[in-house]
Design goal:
It is a single chain. This protein has about 140 residues and is mainly α. Helices cover about 60% and strands about 10% of the residues. It contains 6 helices and 3 strands; from the N terminus they run αααβααββα. The relative contact order is 0.11.
Length: about 140
Amino acid sequence: MEMKAVEIPFALSLADRMQRGDLFAEKCPSREVLKHVTSRWGVLLLVALLSGTQRFSDLRRKVNGISEKMLAQTLQWLEADGFVERISYPVVPPHVEYTLTQSGTEIAKKVEALADWIEVHLPEIIAAQIQKSEQ
């Protein structure tokens, strides 16, 4: 029995989708996912979770400056998108851990590369910002 290749539109790369214009469509569902993953807190939480399973309080300490509300909201978004798994243990006091799923690990590595690029190029970015502000 011969297997036929099936084209799945959501399996296209961003470059392919941009050429087709889907990402630029107002109602494109990938926009919400993109917002969750590339938000300041989304990037930092994904990168933080690359080091392994962590508790809520550990993530709050690790991602300095995030409010408890934004931490909870961002984790919920990432969980709903299938990137983070929430593990709740039935103990008192409550014990909840967060870990990356397989797709979460894949996307976390990609945003980590973006964050690393920014860190490496930060001096020239800051110089450009200063130059622009002086004009």
